[in-house]
Amino acid sequence: MNKSFRSVFLIFALYFLSIDQLYAARIGELVESNSWDQIKRFFTFSDRGLQLSLIGALLFGSVCGLTGSFIVVRRMALFGDAISHAVLPGVAIGFMWGMEKDPLAILVGATIAGLLGSVLVQAIVRTSRIKQDAALGIVLASFFAVGLCLIRMIQNHEGASKMSGLKTYLFGDVAVIDSSDIMTMSVIVVLTFVLFYFLYRPLLIVSFDRQFAYSLGIPVRLLDAVFQMFLVIAIVISLQAVGVVLVSAMLIIPAATAYLLADRMNKMIFLAIIIGVISAILGVFFSFLGSNLPTGPFMVISSSLLFAMAYLFSPKNGRITNWYRYLQLKSKVRKENTLKLIYHYLEKNAEAKEGVNIEVSELLRTSKGDTKGKLSSLRILEKSGSIELENKKLSLTNLGLEQASSIVRNHRLWELYLTNEANYAADHVHDDAEKVEHLLSEEKVKELELFLDHPTVDPHGKPIPGRGQV
Predict the structure, then answer these.
(1) Tens digits of per-residue pLDDT, 79-98?
(2) Cα distance between residue 204 and residue 206, in whole Å
């Protein structure tokens, strides 16, 4: 994943270096109006150019999500970035074939250039001491430089009037996609999905365990070549919308976002396709709103915002989600430790039952640690109805006694499990039980009781609170 993040930063660096060139014609320039009118026009889907742009966004967003999922799990983000720049000479040569925008010629030229770049990277790695990251940098820079030189030659030869069609491949402009482009993209996307469907299992095995794939007799190198062909094709059909500079972002960011949200590859692919399509459509939408707004950068910004949301708020891996979960656990541990302290005090000095008054100051003298924290926990327990506080005295309610008995039962059951089943010494189990007692679910506790045959005392001879007791 670190390589994916570095690649994203590289993409944005290239974007800001080329910012003056990125303001190409956009969809909303067909009719100048205010943003509210543009929003209404967008959702009527009446403009022919907008319809083609949305179809194109749907097509390349889905194929980028599909291909990008395998790029991310294979840790090939930088490889995808290198290939996306390596296709530029092929684009220029395809344009030079007839000195016009011929989608088929450009597709063929870009595909050949991308595959050649891929082969060169592999050849450099296998036949020299150069590592893959250095080989990728060499190929990326060299091919991109050759492409820029060819574009300049075309510009000098034909003049600026011929460059509009070619610049869309360099910087991206979904507004210039026409019906012939849509037909070409549709055929390629359908074929890509069909081939991925039939090759899904072997590609999955190769992506996660190459040695196991070799042992099964899977032609790993052939599949690598096929996958690289898929990658090049996905890049080529996305060039007009996003451009060479930013196309790798649409391969990496939606898949990286899905990686944070899913634990299984099929779910990840599905989410990556959805996120890729949403990002592309949002890019079209924001470009449609104002004057002279680029589509490609808005697509990448949209996908980056979706990634940021997943990074911060995903249910299992979100940073803020995990932080909130940590705070909840910390509060839970503090409250349960305070209830356990009350239970131990009652067990030692009186009968552990509800309604028995305890001096707060006396209780705090029997414990070590943060006095302010325990006082805060007592106030929280009072608000939750676990204890009653009055005149500097406290007593457990029925709810509080049930909760305190539960945490003590968890602690003593785990101590008994460690001594009986893991051969721990009785004087070495307390610290482990202190950690585990807060994490045991009710179902696990019942399984533990059944496994230990419903014990009544812990390894130290102390009674284990029974369920009927509370």
Answers:
(1) 787 887 888 888 888 878 77
(2) 6
Q: Are residues 293 and 324 in the same domain?
A: no
Confidence category of residue 47, pLDDT binned at 50, 70, 90: confident
Whether 419 and 426 have beta carbons less than 8 Å apart is answered as yes
Is the pLDDT reported for residue 141 higher than 50?
yes
Do 236 and 371 lie in a common domain? Answer: no
Q: Tokens 């039952």 identify what position?
A: 353
Structure tokens, 120: 């060169």
The separation between the first and the last C-alpha atoms of the chain, rounded to the nearest angstrom, is 50
Sheet holding 358-359, edge to edge: 358-359, 393-396, 387-390
Whether the per-residue pLDDT at 117 is higher than 90: the answer is no
CATH number at residue 383: 1.10.10.10
| 387 in the same domain as 257 | no
**Residue 372 sits in which domain range?**
318-470
Tell me: do 242 and 329 sit in the same domain: no
**Alpha-carbon gap, residue 257 to 5, rounded angstroms:** 11
Judge if 150 and 188 occupy the same domain.
yes
- Under a CB-based contact definition with an 8 Å cutoff, are residues 143 and 89 in contact? yes
Buried b (16+ CB within 10 A) or exposed e, 369-408: eeeeebeebbeebbeeebbbeeeeebbbbeebbbbbbbbb
Same domain, 239 and 125: yes
The verdict on 158 and 248 lying in the same domain is yes
452 and 350 share one domain: yes
Last-in-domain residue among 283, 315, 347: 315
Number of folded domains that form the chain: 2
Q: pLDDT band at residue 354, thresholds of 50, 70 and 90?
A: confident
Cα–Cα distance list, 222 to 64, 111, 219, 452 (Å): 21, 17, 5, 55
Nearest C-alpha neighbor of 305 from the set 286, 291, 290 = 286
Task: Tell me which of 9 and 248 has the higher pLDDT.
Answer: 248
